Amino acid sequence: xxxxxxxxxxxxxxxxxxxxxxxxxxxxxxxxxxxxxxxxxxxxxxxxxxxxxxxxxxxxxxxxxxxxxxxxxxxxxxxxxxxxxxxxxxxxxxxxxxxxxxxxxxxxxxxxxxxxxxxxxxxxxxxxxxxxxxxxxxxxxxxxxxxxxxxxxxxxxxxxxxxxxxxxxxxxxxxxxxxxxxxxxxxxxxxxxxxxxxxxxxxxxxxxxxxxxxxxxxxxxxxxxxxxxxxxxxxxxxxxxxxxxxxxxxxxxxxxxxxxxxxxxxxxxxxxxxxxxxxxxxxxxxxxxxxxxxxxxxxxxxxxxxxxxxxxxxxxxxxxxxxxxxxxxxxxxxxxxxxxxxxxxxxxxxxxxxxxxxxxxxxxxxxxxxxxxxxxxxxxxxxxxxxxxxxxxxxxxxxxxxxxxxxxxxxxxxxxxxxxxxxxxxxxxxxxxxxxxxxxxxxxxxxxxxxxxxxxxxxxxxxxxxxxxxxxxxxxxxxxxxxxx
Amino acid sequence: xxxxxxxxxxxxxxxxxxxxxxxxxxxxxxxxxxxxxxxxxxxxxxxxxxxxxxxxxxxxxxxxxxxxxxxxxxxxxxxxxxxxxxxxxxxxxxxxxxxxxxxxxxxxxxxxxxxxxxxxxxxxxxxxxxxxxxxxxxxxxxxxxxxxxxxxxxxxxxxxxxxxxxxxxxxxxxxxxxxxxxxxxxxxxxxxxxxxxxxxxxxxxxxxxxxxxxxxxxxxxxxxx
Lengths: 485, 225
Ligand SMILES: Nc1ncnc2c1ncn2[C@@H]1O[C@H](COP(=O)(O)OP(=O)(O)O)[C@@H](O)[C@H]1O
Ligand SMILES: [Mg+2]
Prior knowledge:
heterodimer; A: 3 domains; three-stranded antiparallel β-sheet; B: alpha/beta; Rossmann fold; six-stranded mixed β-sheet; binds adenosine-5'-diphosphate
């Protein structure tokens, strides 16, 4: 038998055969190691856990149209595709306009949105009643509800007036890329000429139709059938200058009226009819913010009223670190030529500071547990040494050098550390899992590195805790065995 | 040839002279008993001879080397190499089996060898009890394990401090027989005892009183009974 085998035999025998004390030492190391491993697991997992938690504080990214771009469902979806699906908590589109309640001579800001998404991006919204589930159902802000006295279940008749579209397109008279314009002008003999033009993405005329039924048949009335006249407008930008247009000879007045109608379509848009719909109030919204002064309706209803699928903004809630968010924002800006992303700094910054405080706290607790474990193990080992005074004296009398005594106690300490570390990794993970499930409501992944790390740490703790007890052991006088103490 | 020589050895604890100018001489292979009333300094002397304590003054020559001024590290080496110890309280490592207790001595000395340890246990008649823990052995059996442990490294000198003090008649005789065998093999034995019968088994008895050598008695009947 080699010396090493005898050493292991003695060390394991000491732990396995003289259970009581060593069990306490093992327990203190094991429990310490368990709490440590659990805390470290939580510490590592906290940013991810809290990331999901933080999403209840609302959106942390906004998508907006670029200066010369359009935000609509397609460009929004394209932008969302650049964000990993599992970190995208929700994306609520918004289209703002003014709606009138003629019966009360009131006018409100109205937002067309997706109610499923709103519940994800703004979980703090509190609704009395229900979120709208069907078309023609609306959500009314508390402020409005109180002003006009509507309740869940009430009916509201709302009217959209053309030219009231807010947002980036409003400044240039509704001459929005991709939109359809209508206009009218006085033609020959006082008859009205109507035109409808659609604009392409660059706000150039894509197609044009005209209604000249009030004009002289075969002359002014035939102008819409004149292909070379009608097609020359394609690609022109509004307003169209009359000198750029080749008029139909013999129908100059009607031709000019078409140009005027086209240009006034931009200036007044009075040709677009007001739209009135009857809505049912599904719920009253309380947020504590400006949303209480809004009326919310589905995007589909909004489109029915305004005839446009233009969006003003989309609020995104993404579970990611501040750094990742910035990356996503940059990616969206680069890959899309119509949509840009902006971070909600107020939210991302407070998230970062809460996270910092939380990880700081966990770190502190870890440190305290580390210290307590060491004190506990050290105390137990000191008790073990004084309990084993005779044995140590005997070993010395039999010729054990100070080095042998040190090695034996350190060996026992390290063995305890090994057992405690394995116990800590297994129980610690279970502990972290339980905390995670109960506190954060989600499970965590096992870090394979946890096992060797826990063993290493608890062996180190055990070794350090043994230093003082070992000094006491080495100082024991072998003569005491002869004195029959 | 002289193995051990104490020259004017004193050990003083404050006012108390535990050993007072002791001069002793033990030859190689000799079997010496040390007697004296309680508190006369027997254990103090054994500690000094056993390299576990140093005298306040005087010289202790073991194998020609003065051990009274050695460092405690050097004393550990000498004790391990030359001395086998047997105690009154038959100290054993409680969580190790009989054979493992014998092997502990081998472990510190050189190499643990289970076969040899079992043989030593066989010599003290405990081969069958080799796998028992001390708590499963009687006092006499434990002391026999201690004898096996003391002789396992073939020490030149065996020091026994009241080895039979806590033993019954039968075990006392077994231990004394073992001592006689060791003596025949040439091992030097110094045995502290209260028991005149144990002292009579030795060649010579040194009587201590108040830390001084009161008298020495040569056992004329040695080897005759
Ligand atoms: N470490 C010590 N400190 C003080 N006095 C001691 C110490 N060791 C022994 N003595 C004293 O020395 C004397 C001799 O003790 P000891 O050698 O144990 O006697 P014995 O073994 O003959 O009974 C006793 O009076 C004892 O009290
Ligand atoms: Mg004594």
